[in-house]
């Protein structure tokens, strides 16, 4: 059931995709990972602390990895790096900032149930053109036997 919720929450209701990354192949990047803390107590800070010279870094760090307890089924891990290792790109009038990861570190891509078939097929074809045979592709579908998602290799 958790997979259904994750796909619903994070892929525009199954219209997106999930990328699997071999973390050992990006070990050279200075990335820090932190387990998310699930807590129903709201974090708060005195606004005066922001201007008084008081060290607010511990609060900010905790705020970046804290979510409400109702999300604990996600078992989320967050990754952080310095801005210097991020790439900026303009897409559709928005500036996106992301970690530039080599395609060789991608091992698998799962397409959501409602992911456009034409776009899926273009991505698969690009992999062939670039010689990236190490990436496996899977199409998600609903199980007919239980409340679950099934994966069919393409």
Secondary structure blueprint with pairings:
Blueprint lengths: L1 H9 L6 E5 L10 E4 L1 E2 L8 H5 L5 H8 L1 E2 L9 E4 L5 E6 L2 E6 L6 E6 L5 H14 L5 E7 L6 E5 L1
Q: How large is the count of helical segments? A: 4
Strand content: 25-35%
Q: Give a quick account of the main beta sheet: strands, pairing sense, barrel closure.
A: 4 strands, mixed
Count all strands and give the number: 10
Which percent range fits the helix content?
10-25%
Helix-strand string: HEEEHHEEEEEHEE
Cα-to-Cα separation, first versus last residue: 24 Å
Taking pLDDT < 50 over at least 5 consecutive residues as the criterion, the unreliable ranges are none
Radius of gyration: 19 Å
Arithmetic mean pLDDT: 85
Explain this structure.
It is a single chain. The protein has 154 residues and is an alpha/beta fold. It folds into two domains: 1-30 and 82-154, no CATH class; 32-80, no CATH class. The chain has four helices and ten strands; from the N terminus they run H-E-E-E-H-H-E-E-E-E-E-H-E-E. The strands form four sheets. Strands 1-8-9-10 form a four-stranded mixed β-sheet, with no helix packed on it. Strand 9 and strand 10 form a beta hairpin.
């Amino acid at each position: 059931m958790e997979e259904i919720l994750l796909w619903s929450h994070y892929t525009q209701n199954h219209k997106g995709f999930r990328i699997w990354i071999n973390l050992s192949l990006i070990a050279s990047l200075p990335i820090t990972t932190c387990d998310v803390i699930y807590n129903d107590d709201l974090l708060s800070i005195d606004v005066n602390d922001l201007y008084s010279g008081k060290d607010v870094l511990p609060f900010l760090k905790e705020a970046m990895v804290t979510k409400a307890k109702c999300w604990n089924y996600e078992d989320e891990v967050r990754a952080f790096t310095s801005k210097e290792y991020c790439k900026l790109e303009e897409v559709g009038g928005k500036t996106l900032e992301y970690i530039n990861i080599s395609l060789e570190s991608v091992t698998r891509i799962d397409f959501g149930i409602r992911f456009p078939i034409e776009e899926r097929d273009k991505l698969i074809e690009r992999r062939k053109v670039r010689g990236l045979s190490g990436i496996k592709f899977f199409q998600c579908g609903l199980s007919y036997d239980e409340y679950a998602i099934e994966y069919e290799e393409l």
